[in-house]
Amino acid sequence: MSKKKKINPSKENTVRSVNNNIRSSVRKLNPILKAIVGKKVDVAIRDLEFSEKRITKDIRKTLSSAVANAENNYQYDIDNLIVKEAYCGKKIVMKRFRPRAKGRAAPILKPYSSVTIILSEAKQMESHGTKS
Q1: Which domains does the chain have, with CATH numbers?
Q2: What percent of the chain has a predicted confidence (pLDDT) above 90?
């Protein structure tokens, strides 16, 4: 006998996209990700497009990938998608050394991060009044 699959009702209408190698620290990514949580997808992409931060290009790619996943794998309507969660975590740290005076060396740490973006479908707001 096989085990029954557990169905999590909260996960049914969510789509996620993960980018595992972003060349930036978590400290620099967090404010950008917090700024897009709760926004509609097209607004979030527009905000990232006009941001002056270098790393927003990679976040925009990950967000676009999540939108493509929602459209192709789950047939969701793009206009109803909102950014439910966006978070990042630490990955590897490349260690390099810079030569200094008197034969010493100073470390240079080049951190990598992983970014996860979760989208969900927003409930349709029905207008009570009719347009005339």
Answers
A1: 15-121 (3.90.470.10)
A2: 67
Q: Residue 50 corresponds to which tokens in the numbers above?
A: 């006009």
CA atoms of 124 and 102, how far apart (whole Å): 67
User: What pTM was computed for the model?
Assistant: 0.79
Q: Which two tokens stand for residue 14?
A: 């969510």
Length reported for the chain: 132
Query: What is the pLDDT confidence band of residue 95, given thresholds at 50, 70 and 90?
Result: very high
SS3 state of residue 107? strand
The set of residues, in sequence order, having a beta carbon less than 8 Å from that of 109 and lying 6+ positions away, is: 93, 94, 95, 96
Sheet with 105-121, side-by-side order of all strands? 14-22, 105-121, 81-99
